[in-house]
Amino acid sequence: MSQHRGAAPHTVEPARAALDDAAPLPVEVHRVLPEQWRAHRELRLDMLEADPDAFWADLAEVRSRTEAQWREEIAGPRIHLQARAGETVLGGIALLPEGYTPEHPIPEDRSNIVSLWVRPAARGRGISTLLLRSVAELALSIGRPELSLDVDDTNSSARAVYERLGFRATGQREPREGRDSAWIEYVLGAEELLRG
Fold it and tell me: Could you say which DSSP state residue 143 is in?
């Protein structure tokens, strides 16, 4: 992944620069930097508008954030990555090397994967797999080789992607407040994901 510890960029089959433009460009995964806060904000708003039930975040709260809050989010502790074709952001993912909150700690060898989303027009091109493999490399590089994520039990397409890549449900379920669904925890070792 480029822009992360000097590693070479990952690529997948060419994607269209503007998703409908005629000039194909390779897709590369980059770490999001604070000065790229506008592109990060746009992606986060688009994902919450398109798929609000797939994420923990509240759209109204996210819309109200200031530039300083966006820059702070990018600075950490979450490490945000984006898949891009040229300057076009196709999707994103984040790695959280700690629990969601102090009340939700995780083992020291584990990282949480959060906020995986690919723009609808870019789906079916292997971008989710590219983002997940990039985050697995990142997790290994920071010494947290075990990956976990939560997915809404009604999100069958996301569950299918994770299961195809080898993620296994742990049996841990957390009911979602105000919804008739629950978060299901999935886990996989980063090395296993990269071998798959």
Answer: T
Question: Can you give the residue ranges of every domain in the chain?
Answer: 15-195
Question: Which residues neighbour 85 within 8 Å (Cβ) at sequence distance 6 or greater?
Answer: 14, 15, 16, 17, 24, 25, 26, 27, 28
State the residue for tokens 């460009």: 25
For residue 135, pLDDT beyond 90: yes
Q: Does domain 15-195 have CATH number 3.40.50.300?
A: no
Q: pTM higher than 0.90 for the full model?
A: no
Hey, what amino acid is at 54?
A: A
What digits encode the pLDDT tens for the residues 77-100?
A: 889 999 999 999 999 999 999 877
Spatial distance between the Cα atoms of 25 and 88, rounded to a whole number of angstroms: 10
CA-based radius of gyration for the chain: 16
